[in-house]
Design goal:
Elements lengths: L7 E9 L5 E7 L6 E3 L2 E3 L6 H13 L1 E3 L3 E9 L5 E9 L2 E3 L7 E7 L12 H9 L5 E7 L2 E6 L1
Parallel strand pairs: 1-7, 6-10
Antiparallel strand pairs: 1-4, 2-3, 2-9, 5-8, 6-7, 10-11
């Protein structure tokens, strides 16, 4: 049986949290995916996944994280037939001074108030990857113009 290869875009997102019930959020604007999200971004060609999430969090928040733990994967097929993959990490180990980037303002919010904020599209379901140890994949696809979502 032959192998089939697909075009894939790898990205990441990281929930940085502290011991007082706070999580680091970014308010994205003018990106096509506006609203409250966790910091993250694209994995560069040939870059290790952990190095990429550390770099993205540093670029977007000024914080240097360590020991990010993979807690889930979000993925979907794009209109062009390629797959889009988001590796979701979390860590409570960080240092540095919080500094926003042009991608959006970053700030600490109480985890239990997160769902009251204007979350980016699909972010509410994505949160389950970070918060529910029984869920490790969130995927969606279009069938007859309707979005079919799956949490596993």
């Amino acid at each position: 049986m032959g192998h089939s290869y697909e075009q894939v875009t790898f990205t990441n997102m990281c929930m940085v949290y502290d011991d007082n019930g706070n999580v680091l959020v970014q308010e994205r604007v003018h990106t096509g995916w506006d609203g409250i999200v966790f910091p993250g971004g694209h994995v560069d060609f040939g870059e290790d996944f952990v190095d990429a999430v550390k770099r993205e969090v540093l670029e977007e928040s000024g914080l240097e994280i360590s020991c990010p733990k993979l807690c889930g994967v979000k993925q979907w097929m794009r209109d062009d037939g390629s797959r889009y993959v988001v590796f979701c990490y979390k860590t409570n180990r960080f240092s540095g001074t919080l500094t926003s980037s042009e991608e959006g303002e970053v700030r600490w919010v109480k985890l239990d108030e997160l769902k009251k904020l204007p979350l980016a599209r699909t972010m509410e379901k994505t949160l389950q990857l970070f918060l529910d140890d029984n869920i490790c994949e969130y995927s969606f696809r279009l069938e007859n113009g309707e979005r079919i979502e799956s949490l596993k």
